## 1
Amino acid sequence: MASLLGVWKAGAAYVPIDPSYPAERIASMLESAGAGPSLTHSTYADRFGGDPDVVLLDRHASLIDGRPRSAPERAEDAEALAYVIFTSGSTGWPKGVAVTHRGLANHVAWAARDLASRGTTGAPLFSSVAFDLVVPNLWAPLVTGQRVHTIAQDTDTADLARELVAAGPFSFIKLTPGHVDVLAAQLTAQQASALAPVLVVAGEALTRTTVERWRALAPGTEIVNEYGPTEASVGTCVFPVTDAETGEVMPIGRPLPNMTMYVLDARLDQVAVGVEVSCTSAVPAWRAATRAGPV
């Protein structure tokens, strides 16, 4: 986390790299992004193929200490890059998505106001920072003066519930439907109810089965379904799940603040309110959206 903040303080953008990636993919990502120095740990040095610009945070203390202690000069530019995050892309080939500080700040401001404000104990970080789902867990607590509790990324899923209970309770948790299912199988009703007042679920379709599984343990927890592509700065819309929702897949809801969503037809023309359309391969998922109300 100090490295990510340091990159910003230096006026640069970061490219998060999952340590499980093979060296060939990492090299391709760094070349595509035009990245400069790489910050890592000696455990992962071999992933960078002997790149002389790699800084090993656990071995290069003297190099780091030798740098100026004064704050670097940087320009305040909301359109400057905050990070470049790589997705698999529609072709399966890694694709770098550039996210600006303006887009990131807008999403974090919503998360701080609507999620972190639910308490004073922050959020857990237990997924890879190379996955933009973790953005609210990472930054919303910090901008509200709360903590981010880091849990090792390679923690066995069988131990996840134990780790979260030991570190909790939290103001909120953002996680995938798969995580919800895992935790529902591991937690007692008392533990689930005390974990966090709100769960934000994203990353894949949220089914009624998953919702009911958690509701059986912790009926008082608010569950919010979030949808959005990486290209639109993490998320674009949310749907607070109610007990009245009976669909097999939860709706994606309404736009977040300062976001506008459109329903387009197969020719990418905007359709009128009330017109039903089906998403096909002709309409990329990141262009699909809601109508005037939840769908």
Note: The longest strand covers residues 81-87.
## 2
Amino acid sequence: SIETPVGELSGGNQQKVLIGREMSAAPAVLMVDEPTKGVDIGARAEIYQRLRALAEQGMAIIVCCSDGIELEGLCDRVLIFARGRIVRELRGSEITDASITEANLTAKVSRAEGTGAREGGERWRRLLRSDHFPALVLAALTAIILVGTELVSSYFLTPLNIANMLIFLAIVVFAAAGQMATILVGRIDLSVGALAGFMVVLASFTMKSGTPLPAVIGGGVLVLLCGMLYGLFQGILIAELGLPAIIVTLASFIGLQGLSLALRPKAAGEIDDALSDLTEFPILGVPAGMALALVLIAVIEILLYRSALGRRMRAVGSSPLAGARLGLGGQRHLVQAFVICGLLTGIGGLLLAGEIGMGSATVGADYTIISLTAVVLGGASITGGRASALCTLMGAALIQATSSAAAFFNQNSSWHYTVLGAVTLIAATFFSVVRRTRLAE
């Protein structure tokens, strides 16, 4: 009956339900992949009839199928692909199972003809429009700033100053990675900076100077747990209650700053040196905090492009409606994104606490703007669905290089923010134009 749960139906009937659901939505374009695989002969004939009827009514229908006979009987036009390229197009009476099989067997020859210079140009265009192209641009800009500052002052790229820059870069990377998680699902977290500062204040209570090492570790775990719980709280308000993310996180920013001031009206509460010793401990010449940030970036990048979770989060951010139709659980992924943001911001806050050395309610607020800037510089789509951890890392590197260079030039923060604002606007405009060009093609 109509009340029977779909999960209790046979595989063929489940497939008919799915196809029927999409047909009933009357889309302008319907894409079906192996639509009759696993169904009986009667259902197959009905699916054919329904697809043809919709096509005659003006709906564009794309069928992906490995059965040449099915394509011969169903399609008005057949494109044969090999290695991502169209190697042959068949129309009308040309569409036969034999022609489709022949095109498949000779695909290598067809692809090889006249592809030399064209493939080179296509590779360049793909690179220009890829998710990772911003990393190359940002790396070049960062190198220019570092080398230029070193030419002005030979003290800039000393081992000590490089280590300091890497430690503060790690803080930016964790904050930006957390922000990227929320942007990926089409939201934004304005409370990142305030949460990082609140983590510093909490650490001044849970990781006091002179505390035994096990207690210091336990205090750090407690701080991270608080960050995750706060992210969960925000995620539930946004996903379950439907409150706008910008309102929730703006209120969080104000509330967390107020709470930090209530706990630490003045800078106080010395934090145990074990935290800074741990984050600054060299691993292959790189501070442990930065080494952890690099591992994080590698893991996130792999998850984004090689895992089901990454694909689902990108899909939810790209089109919540399409994600809901596919049963991706958009609300669940929203909550997960804010929990991840809370955890990563908590780690960044602990690194910041180690460098500050005491509880202060005034630190951390700038990391909201900094994290957003790093993600935007990395070419992420602010409306969701598109981001790269590697590009976010390079965006953070450019920010930190600019900040460190400003200090060596004895410039105040206004110079630093002016440069970053100009670079961010130019980068966002450039990446947007490139992507619109790709969509137009």
Note: The first helix runs from residue 11 to 24.
## 3
Amino acid sequence: MSRLLDRTLGQEIAISLALATDLRRVRVDRVQFEASLINLAINARDAMPDGGKLSIEARNVIVLPGSPDNDLSLVPGEYVALSVMDTGRGMTPAVLERAIEPFFTTKPPDQGSGLGLSMVHSFASQSGGALTMASTPGHGTRVTLHLPVADASQADGEGSEEGSTAPAAGGKLVLLVEDQPKVRLVLKRQLVRLGYEVIEAEGAEAALTRLREGGHVDLLLTDVLLPGPMNGVALGAAALSLRPELGIVLMTGHASERLLARSGPIAEAIVLRKPVDRDTLGRALRSALQTSASGGTNI
């Protein structure tokens, strides 16, 4: 990707590579990996308007319980640690704390969506790894991705079906419940690309009204935190009382464990952590469809 990075960064930013010669293979989505690296490079470029240096390092690490590399509770094992560092203006502690939040940005409205770092964070966590950041105002930023090493069969390409992005929705209809318009739009686009038909609702009452009106609905995809007295967990239970055959998938960004407490017919509903990438969303919805079709619980 060196030529692409050169074009992205421009002549004012020098690129330094320090890649271990014995790097292990990792099993990740190639497109998402490349997009994540470009996102990090663009953030670094924007932090260095007067030029600077972008350094990319990669090394093998073994994470042990309680080791310095395990501050994000990584599963002990072998990882490749990929670090992207810039010499830019850096971030204050307050900005650093919110940097991976979806739609958070310090850029003007027409210059940034606030989704870049949240997408990179989502890619890392859903690949079985983690993202860490360190930054000091005036001294640059370091972003590190820990990506799990593939075992021998995965490195040889076995099991590639699991990460397939091929639509398998067959025109199934999803009731999407999300109160934030921008997030709802992103999710709707993902669902359409996966082959689903979509109807939308901003809250629990609107969703239940649609279910009571009749018409076939195959899946309920709802945020846990919703406006009004009924959260997504309660909505799922109410929806199942109306449509016992409904597949249920919950989404949460930072809901408390109290809100996620589930019982009865929704006790084992699938829960996705936001932001969620399209592959993970597709697998979750297919699983919910399969279990609802077989008369089982959504596990």
Note: Strands lie at 13-19, 52-63, 77-86, 130-135, 141-148, 173-177, 197-201, 219-223, 247-252, 270-273.
